[in-house]
Write a structure and sequence with these properties.
heterodimer; A: alpha+beta; globular; B: alpha+beta; Barwin-like endoglucanases; Dna Ligase, domain 1; 4 domains; 13 helices
């Protein structure tokens, strides 16, 4: 049995969603089954979970042993739940894929900068600590600003310098020198990354962001599951091929430091020569489950979950 | 000898040394850095001159080819020591801090807590790195993690060889991985094992001298056994065998046929008075108290201003691998609690102050301190007999109202919070000691 850890009170939603993706792919009744549960329904002392069994025929409530392989598709908010997730990850003989789904972006950028080959994917950036007020954006530079702890795409701010005004997000003008006040107001996290982005490709005055979904599968290797773009534009195939390669290179290197990554996404921006740069490294994205429409993608997603489980099982047996 | 390493472009494996040093070697040597090594040709360079003064600040500049740098994965820009043996040249030390499995949180900010240890860097030099067991590339003897850069006084990401000595800083790693690393480092992984409280009691209890200092202890099995234990010993304490810092404690005293239960399992302790029937119900509801808990006769600790105190002795191995008492602090319990942990709101005193406050007429405080030193030394020796590699213990002792010394527990992963405010110099010595010990067992101090 393979475990799927979902956010609290979303067990039914995830179970039926997964069932709709998997049912046509589960060919035999004895195919691998999935148990969906939340952190609230794990009894670490007894080694049991309560949740829903996803099989070829449907979804039914179940109480089972904690599965040896668990894919974490959850976001934990309370400190108690985070503590329990940590305890779960510390149990011997249980593999938690996606130990977290929220990454420190500064950390990811610095990891990439430690590689002579991959630092080309990182634009110059500065860390702004709101409490220390330790950074002042330059007036001659455009920036993309993201919270260090990660974010969804609509919390990414773009500051461009045009004539005497500073423009944020392409639709709101504020006075030059006041962009920090604006950022302080609208981004609540303490640490923010100011990524220098003067030469990036834009559409309607916003940076074009290509999100590539990556999944680990056969023999633990990464593959691209698909992508989405934040603008309704057609991107040249050569460019997307390039962003796929960049995403896979980034994945392979980050996995050396954080090996638990399994299903995640990478947001890239492009410069005017179409060279890709990392904007944001994220964990599981629910959008993926809701938008896996083509059978090929569904099949890849399903098979990767199975293949990676088998890979970890073999590793645990020392094969 | 202190060295800085320059890298020159060349497709051969070469190390360039001053003529005087190069002349000691015929042609090829084994060049080692951490647990990686490579054959290298030694070439005498007229450009490299041995200076009269060789210090951390004024190291000898040597050079290697980029092929050697790649093979050994040596970060340049650091100041190393170099050891010349008959057929081997070793650059180092490469000291590793073995972190846990939460790889996604190991960043510069996380590593700040290790930065005060780096105050000793100028004495030790080399590569001080931190890594998770999950980020080891076993096939290539490499680890991915963070290393200390003294120039910027911060930790940076990188890839480096599996270190030649490893200071274990987390105890959630599976035993197989620890065994594997111990094997690779030829036993130079220390704090290799965390024993539980009951093992500690049983192991020490086999030594007659130490047994005299151990409070009566049993593994908690069932209600009848616990009740009998309380009825006989009157003042008792239930402790989880695997937790530290006073977590999970329950103190049960019998008074006038009633059972006074002080439950410290939550942040705010709860005190309840129970009849015999209630006590049974309490244990029926708390079955976990029969699983990985022990019951112990409570020591009536001596008190300071009405609050009990215990003694934390930090025992560490010095550069000669001998056990040394590096610091003693007495931890006085917070008012209205019997738990002495500073994390529970207590405060720290030095032992002289504590003994004088607890026993105003005391004249033999030096004898007591010597007695404690000797007892701690014996405990460390006894724990060494487990065959594990230990280099640091926080030993908790108690002194009762008759000045008898009791052994409470040993922490393999002790905190030194009290020293930080009470005696910063001692605190830093304690923080440095494992790094110095690492360098010494690697042969670089």
């Amino acid at each position: 049995m393979i475990g799927i850890l979902c956010s609290n009170n979303k067990e039914k939603f995830y179970s039926w969603r997964l069932h709709s993706i998997f049912s046509e792919l589960m060919k035999r009744d004895n195919d691998r089954l999935f148990v969906v549960f939340s952190i609230l329904n794990i009894d670490l002392l007894k080694g049991k979970v309560k949740g829903f069994l996803v099989s070829k025929t449907g979804v039914m409530p179940i109480e089972a042993d904690i599965p040896p392989i668990i894919y974490n598709f959850s976001f934990q908010k309370s400190s108690e739940d985070i503590r329990n997730l940590r305890r779960l990850s510390e149990i011997d003989n249980i593999v938690l894929v996606n130990g977290t789904n929220r990454f420190d972006q500064n950390m990811i950028m610095e990891m990439l900068c430690s590689s002579n080959i991959l630092k080309k994917y990182v634009l110059n950036f500065s860390i702004y600590d709101k409490n220390k007020n330790n950074f002042m954006p330059r007036e001659d530079t455009d920036y993309v600003v993201i919270p260090s702890k990660g974010s969804n795409i609509d919390k990414i701010y773009y500051i461009s310098q045009e004539q005497k005004n500073t423009k944020i997000e392409g639709n709101e003008y504020i006075k030059r020198g006041e962009s920090l006040d604006y950022i302080n107001e609208f981004l609540c996290q303490r640490y923010l990354l100011f990524i220098e982005a003067s030469n990036i490709l834009k559409h309607n005055n916003c940076p074009i962001i290509i999100r590539t979904y990556i999944q680990r599968g056969y023999n633990g290797t990464f593959e691209s599951l698909g992508r989405r773009i934040n603008a309704d534009i057609k991107i040249d195939e050569v460019v997307t091929e390039n962003t796929d390669i960049a995403s896979l290179n980034i994945s392979n290197y980050i996995a050396k430091f954080i090996p638990s990554i399994g299903t995640f996404f990478i947001d890239l921006i492009l410069d005017k020569n179409n060279a890709p740069y990392l904007l944001h490294f994220g964990g599981f994205d629910l959008w993926l489950l809701n938008n896996l429409k083509e059978k090929e993608y569904k099949k890849d997603f399903y098979k990767n979950l199975i293949y990676l489980s088998e890979f970890y099982e073999r590793s645990q047996k020392g094969e | 000898m202190w060295v800085n390493i320059d890298v020159v472009s060349n497709d051969k494996s070469v190390i360039f040394l001053p003529e005087k040093l190069a002349s000691e070697y015929s042609s090829e040597v084994q060049l080692c850095f951490g647990k990686r090594s490579s054959e290298a040709i030694v070439i005498a360079s007229k450009d490299i001159k041995i200076q009269k003064e060789n210090t951390f600040e004024k190291p000898l500049k040597i050079a290697i080819t980029n092929k050697i740098k790649r093979r050994l994965q040596i970060p340049t820009g650091l100041t190393y020591k170099i050891k010349f043996n008959a057929d081997k040249i070793e650059i180092g030390p490469v000291i590793g801090l073995l972190l846990g499995n939460r790889n996604h949180i190991y960043n510069k900010r996380y590593m700040v807590k290790y930065s005060d240890r780096c105050g000793i860097y100028k004495e030790v030099g080399g590569l001080l790195c931190a890594f998770s067991p999950r980020s080891i590339d076993w096939n290539n003897f490499l680890a991915y993690g963070l290393y200390y850069d003294p120039k910027d006084n911060e930790w940076k990401y990188g890839r480096f060889p599996i270190p030649s000595t490893i200071y274990r800083r987390d105890f959630h790693t599976d035993n197989e991985t620890i065994k594997r690393l111990s094997f690779i480092t030829e036993g130079k992984l220390f704090n290799s094992w965390r024993f539980n409280k009951f093992y500690f009691y049983k192991h020490l209890g086999k030594d007659k001298y130490l047994l005299k200092h151990l409070p009566l202890t049993e593994l908690s099995l069932n209600y009848e056994q616990i009740k009998d234990f309380i009825d006989i010993n009157i003042k008792t304490i239930l402790k989880p065998i695997n937790l530290s810092r006073g977590r999970g404690l329950i103190i049960i005293n019998k008074e006038g046929g009633k059972y006074i239960v002080e439950d410290y399992r939550q942040r705010l302790p709860e005190k309840i008075i129970l009849t015999e029937d209630n006590l049974k119900e309490f244990f029926d509801k708390n079955q976990m108290l029969f699983n990985n808990y022990l019951i112990q006769k409570q020591i009536l600790l001596a008190k300071i201003d009405g609050s009990p105190f215990d003694i934390r002795i930090v025992m560490q191995r010095n550069q000669k691998s001998q056990w040394k008492d590096m610091g003693i602090e007495c931890r006085v319990a917070n008012k209205n609690t019997l738990v002495t942990n500073i994390s529970r709101g207590g405060y720290a005193l030095n032992i002289e102050e504590a003994l004088k406050s607890a026993f105003p007429n005391i004249t033999n405080d030096k004898d007591i301190k010597d007695y404690i030193d000797d007892l701690c030394y014996r405990i460390c020796q006894r724990l060494d007999e487990t065959g594990q590699h230990f280099a640091e213990f926080g030993l908790d002792l108690g002194i009762d109202e008759d000045k008898k010394i009791w052994i409470i527990e040993a922490n393999v992963f002790p905190s030194f919070k009290g020293f930080k405010t009470m005696d910063h110099e001692t605190y830093l010595k304690i923080r440095y000691a494992p790094i110095q010990y690492s360098a010494s067992i690697a042969g670089f101090l």
